[in-house]
Amino acid sequence: MMRIPSEVTIGKTKIKINQPTSLIVGTQVCRGCYDRTDNKIDVARKDTQGNYYGREERRETFWHEITHAILHDMKCKLDYDEKFVTAFSQRLDQAIKTAKF
Predict the structure, then answer these.
(1) What is the mean pLDDT for each group of 10 consecutive residues in the chain (101 residues)?
(2) Which domains are delineated in the chain?
(3) Cα–Cα distance between 48 and 21 in angstroms, integer?
(4) Spatial separation of the C-alpha atoms in residues 66 and 72, rounded to whole Å
(5) Cβ(10)–Cβ(16) under 8 Å?
(6) Of 29, 1, 10, which Cα lies nearest the Cα of 67?
(7) Which pLDDT does position 50 carry in this prediction?
(8) Bridge-partner residues for 29, per DSSP?
(9) Cβ neighbours around 84 below 10 Å, total
């Protein structure tokens, strides 16, 4: 089982990771959000109706937002391509959870 960290460093930027109860960005309910201005990632624990997100959903959301942060650090335009970020982060999550040592 993977624990979501409280902070990571990507490039030269320290990024705080918060796990709020729920998350609304603008008017949209979200599972996660990468805030480029405040250097933080939020990974919600529940939706706005009080339904908990499972461990797997939260882990996938964490890797999705980390992918945004990495691409932003690289100044890569794919940072804003949700289809690419989702596809990449799903494969990253799979590689990490199936790694054998």
Answers:
(1) 92 96 87 95 92 93 97 96 97 94 95
(2) 7-97 (1.10.10)
(3) 9
(4) 10
(5) no
(6) 10
(7) 87
(8) 24
(9) 15
Four-point Cα dihedral 38, 28, 50, 35, nearest 10: -10
Q: Which two tokens stand for residue 44?
A: 């919600």
Distance CA 78, CA 68 (A): 8
CB 68 within 8 A of CB 34: yes
Which of 23, 11, 1, 27 has its CA nearest to residue 69? 11
Rounded-to-integer distance, Cα 13 and Cα 47, Å: 29
Q: Tokens 């405040």 appear where?
A: 38
